[in-house]
Design goal:
Strand order of the largest sheet: 5-6-7-3-8-9
Largest sheet: 6 strands, mixed
Number of strands: 20
Shape: globular
Structural class: alpha/beta
Number of helices: 8
CATH architecture of the largest domain: 3-Layer(aba) Sandwich
Order of helices and strands: EHEEHEEHHHEHEHEEHEEEEEEEEEEE
Number of domains: 2
Distance between the termini: 85 Å
Radius of gyration: 24 Å
């Protein structure tokens, strides 16, 4: 028996600029027809400039029982690929052959009817997948229990938070017996405990011979769950192979091979991160610091439209996949509304704060209601115990926990 369940052959997908943000409802389709009519009546001399190839000549295969991680920067084509495999959009060129029933968990808001309750949406989803009412009801209690939202299961899902929606959507997608489960970045919406629960469920599914395609910016989750990974860059396959090798290649591309690095500037976004660097207090590029040294992280970004509440977020990971802490430019920022222009945000990490180890930096920028850009492993640096007289004395070397903290102590004598 042929073990190949997904075969993608020379797959390409093009969009006219402005189409990529459209939805997939009837109203969206009607609006799209009106827009296209206007485009067709306009001069076509700029037609080539109005076309964006989200995917270009992508080919790969996935075997039964395999967990394939799909990684890459924002705009690399990951979500477009999953939508084609889920039959939500059609390819412009090439084809994708899929053997088996597909359960897809894409962006929050896709797949459920907001007017129906959670229970009714479970029944609807199962019916769409071709299951009988009896089969769905047999799974109902298990789905509700896994989702953890029993109290709200008979409430219309339009009243759900994004986290509740994601919990139910994953529970439905994973329990209605798909041969192939497709999961996009939406798990980032849930809490850490639920993410672990989902990873465990996907692991169990693959042991039962089911196939999983998993898109995530969390390289720790990709490394833990996936046996192989596919790295997309600018809509094309950059590399495919064992997960550890592909994750390392992705980190290398993100770093640009140096500590001062520039990033692709997507001019279609209201704002974007353009460069980043790690330096010492004298603005010298550095990659290794003593535990007593201050580490300076510089993030350059560009704003194209006035944006209220714009934040730059910095997530620090230790030893590549252990989330250590995060920082952001919050509401106390002196410029809560950003006017168009180029900016630099700077975050200073004090000495005697980071324990020895290898650190990587994940960057993101956006407003409270929209993530504009995210860059995994944007920077890396090492912290070493070089100062023998400031820290490395006796038991202090073995302090428990993630950070070094002397605290503020005082001692009073009574009697």
């Amino acid at each position: 028996m042929n073990d190949t369940v997904i075969s993608v052959e020379h797959l390409s997908k093009s969009f006219r600029l402005g189409e990529m943000q459209r939805g997939h409802t009837l109203a969206d389709a009607i609006n799209g027809l009106l827009r296209r009519k206007g485009v067709e009546e306009a001069p076509k001399k700029n037609a080539e400039q109005q076309t964006l190839w989200a995917l270009k000549d992508v080919s790969f295969t996935v075997n039964r029982g395999e967990v394939l991680g799909i990684i890459g920067r924002n705009g690399a084509g990951k979500s477009t690929l999953l939508k084609i495999l889920s039959r939500i959009v059609s390819p412009t060129e090439g084809r994708a052959v899929i053997e088996g029933r597909v359960g897809a968990l894409l962006e929050v808001g896709t797949g459920f009817s907001g007017e129906l309750t959670g229970r009714e949406n479970i029944l609807l989803s199962g019916t769409i997948l071709g299951m009988s009412q009896e089969e769905i009801r047999d799974k109902m209690d298990e789905i509700i229990d896994f989702s953890g939202i029993e109290r709200f299961i008979d409430t219309p899902v339009k009243r759900y938070s994004s986290g509740m929606y994601t919990r139910l959507a994953f529970a439905v997608a994973a329990h209605l017996e798909p041969e192939i489960l497709i999961v996009d970045e939406v798990l980032a919406v849930g809490d850490v405990e639920f993410q672990r629960k989902c990873l465990g469920k996907m692991n169990a599914m693959t042991k039962g011979g089911r196939t999983v395609l998993f898109v995530s910016h969390n390289m720790g989750a990709v490394s833990e769950l996936c046996s192989h990974a596919l790295l997309l860059q600018r809509g094309q396959v950059h590399a495919m192979g064992e997960t550890a090798q592909i994750v390392e290649e992705y980190a290398r591309l993100q770093r640009g091979g140096e500590q001062g690095v520039s990033f692709d500037d997507d001019e279609s976004l209201p704002c974007s991160i353009t460069a980043a660097s790690v330096t010492d207090t004298k603005d010298n590029a550095a990659s290794t610091f003593d535990i007593a040294d201050e580490v300076v992280l510089n993030i350059h970004y560009k704003v194209r439209l006035p944006l209220e509440g714009l934040q730059v977020v910095l997530v620090l990971l230790r030893n590549m996949n252990e989330v250590f802490c995060s920082f952001d430019t919050d509401a106390l920022d002196s410029l809560p509304t950003r006017e168009p222009g180029s900016y630099r945000a700077q975050c200073r990490l004090p000495g005697m704060f980071l324990k020895a180890g290898n650190y990587s930096v994940r960057l993101a920028i956006g407003t409270p209601d929209r993530l504009m850009a995210e860059i995994e492993s944007a920077l890396t640096f090492d912290v070493e115990e070089l100062s023998q007289n400031t820290y490395n004395k006796g038991y202090r070397k073995e302090r428990i926990g993630h950070i070094i903290s002397r605290g503020r102590w005082s001692t009073e004598r009574f009697g």
